[in-house]
Amino acid sequence: QLQASGGGLVKSGGSLTLSCAASGSIVSINRMGWYRQAPGKQRELVAVTTSGGNTNYADSVKGRFTISRDGAWKSVYLQMNSLKPEDTAVYYCNSRTWALKDFWGQGTLVTVSS
User: Fold this and answer.
1) Where are the alpha helices (DSSP H) in 24-106?
2) Dihedral (C-alpha) 100, 107, 54, 42: value to the nearest 10 degrees?
3) What residues contact 30, with CB distance under 8 A and at least 6 apart?
4) Among 34, 36, 67, 37, CA closest to 53
5) Do the strands 8-11 and 108-113 form a parallel or antiparallel pair, or are they unpaired?
6) Which of 92, 104, 101, 1 is nearest to 44 (CA)?
7) What pLDDT was estimated at residue 53?
8) How far apart are CA 110 and CA 89, in angstroms?
9) Dihedral over Cα of 66, 16, 70, 22: its sign
């Protein structure tokens, strides 16, 4: 129901843009975001955008990553600049409905080489 794409291999300092498309079966979304999980680590929030117009970022990506979405809550994007090796992880998109139900994409691997 969420399809993520855009991961790949990039050199340190490079850029990637992740995309996530939500299927029509997910309705009443009020929040979309990106999480990531590095090997041996817990999944962590990277960025989120809410219906109130707020965006929040993990401290480690502030100033480098930008989250955006379409007006219909059908797509969310993550523009990642100045990538570092520590950004290497599987990135998951997430959507949450007003009923607090979470949906997850399948994950897309981002590998940043030094």
Assistant:
1) none
2) 80
3) 50, 51, 73, 96, 97, 98
4) 67
5) parallel
6) 92
7) 84
8) 6
9) negative
